[in-house]
Design brief:
Blueprint lengths: L1 H48 L12
């Protein structure tokens, strides 16, 4: 009986971890989709203007 209980606990932990991973990945994809325009705009700005720290005061990090 103890072995069956331990197996059930391991299975429960595996299922919980899998669900957590799926939810995390879904949220990550949703965040990327919601912020895609802003990320693209910042990348374009950085390509055109350089990094915020690319000047004489800060130098290049």
């Amino acid at each position: 009986m103890k072995a069956e209980r331990e197996t059930a606990i391991q299975l429960t932990n595996t299922i919980n971890n899998t669900i957590t991973d799926v939810v995390h990945e879904k949220r990550r994809q949703q965040w990327k989709a919601e912020n895609k325009v802003g990320i693209h705009a910042f990348n374009e700005f950085e390509r055109d203007a350089g990094l915020f720290t690319d000047d004489d005061e800060y130098g290049v990090i």
